[in-house]
């Protein structure tokens, strides 16, 4: 299942520039994501985090730059081709198909990439055993945290080797956030690489092997998550002061 070279970046983003209509949003983003890591992108509202994730996922076409996944240029590919390589975007929010069962929601995830479905389902239920008893229930009746589990599980059912998570903790209480952090660590151990963008900066940086601060569409700081959490510039930009981590 895992054929990544630990000595090569899994994802290499080089001089990425993205515009909406003619308005530049990401100007020159360059970074690598190494296999089997949890990588975080943090930054102020509107800095360009979601835009970068969507460009990697093939949902937005860059105006300049390169995106290489396992050395394959993916910046000109359609979303379906990017997914079939194992790069899967999980949008923010808790959107499920409410009238479909949890099982059917997960099957939708596997629609574009149908190999290894039983193996993927085992991984999902090992991460989120609470879904086991809800498999035949309508997804609309799940709690917010459970719906979020289904959206993440759909990404895994699509065969993600690189999971792009957009604000995964949005709207979740501290206990559920903790639950997701341990699921992320289990996922990393199972060979999935995670690129996480979001607002829950302290929580995300504490679990991040590598993290980037994005400001105005460019990367202004990078390092291990717990280290950059101590950085004065980051604290000033994101917390407005320099609190204790
Ligand atoms: N579809 C769009 N059309 C035009 N402008 C957009 C569009 N989507 C985002 N933008 C703008 O691009 C900029 C970057 O947005 P983006 O969502 O990537 O930032 P972000 O860092 O993810 O922000 P947040 O943390 O608030 O989610 C913002 O100024 C936003 O208003």
UniProtKB/TrEMBL annotation:
Limits of the ABC transporter domain: 11-241
Stored InterPro entries: AAA+_ATPase (IPR003593), ABC_transporter-like_ATP-bd (IPR003439), ABC_transporter-like_CS (IPR017871), BCAA_Transport_ATP-bd_LivF (IPR052156), P-loop_NTPase (IPR027417)
Coiled-coil segments: none
Membrane-spanning segments: none
Name of protein: Branched-chain amino acid transport system ATP-binding protein
Stated family: Belongs to the ABC transporter superfamily.
Gene Ontology MF term list: ATP binding; ATP hydrolysis activity; branched-chain amino acid transmembrane transporter activity
GO terms under biological process: L-amino acid transport
Organism whose genome encodes this protein: Desulfacinum infernum DSM 9756
Gene3D superfamilies attached to this UniProt entry: P-loop containing nucleotide triphosphate hydrolases
UniProt keywords, alphabetically: Amino-acid transport, ATP-binding, Nucleotide-binding, Transport
């Amino acid at each position: 299942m895992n054929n990544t070279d630990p000595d090569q970046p899994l994802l290499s983003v080089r001089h990425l520039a993205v515009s909406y209509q003619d308005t530049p949003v990401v100007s020159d983003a360059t970074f690598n994501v190494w296999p089997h890591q949890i990588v975080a992108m943090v930054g102020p509202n509107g800095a360009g985090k979601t835009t970068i994730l969507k460009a990697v996922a093939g949902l937005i076409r860059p105006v300049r730059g390169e995106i290489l996944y396992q050395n394959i240029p993916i910046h000109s590919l359609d979303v379906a081709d990017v997914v079939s390589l194992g790069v899967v975007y999980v949008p923010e929010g808790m959107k499920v198909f409410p009238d479909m069962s949890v099982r059917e929601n997960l099957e939708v995830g596997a629609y574009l990439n149908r190999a290894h479905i039983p193996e993927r389902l085992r991984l999902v239920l090992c991460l989120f055993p609470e879904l086991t008893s809800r498999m035949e229930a309508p997804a609309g009746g799940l709690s917010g945290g459970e719906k979020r589990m289904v959206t993440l599980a759909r990404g895994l059912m699509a065969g993600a080797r690189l999971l792009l998570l957009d604000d995964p903790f949005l709207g979740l209480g501290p206990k559920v956030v903790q639950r997701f952090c341990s699921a992320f660590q289990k996922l990393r151990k199972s060979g999935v690489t995670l690129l996480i963008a979001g607002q829950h900066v302290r929580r995300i940086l504490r679990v991040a092997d590598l993290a980037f601060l994005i400001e105005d569409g460019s990367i202004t700081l990078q390092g291990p998550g717990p280290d950059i959490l101590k950085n004065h510039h980051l604290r000033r930009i994101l917390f407005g002061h320099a609190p204790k981590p």
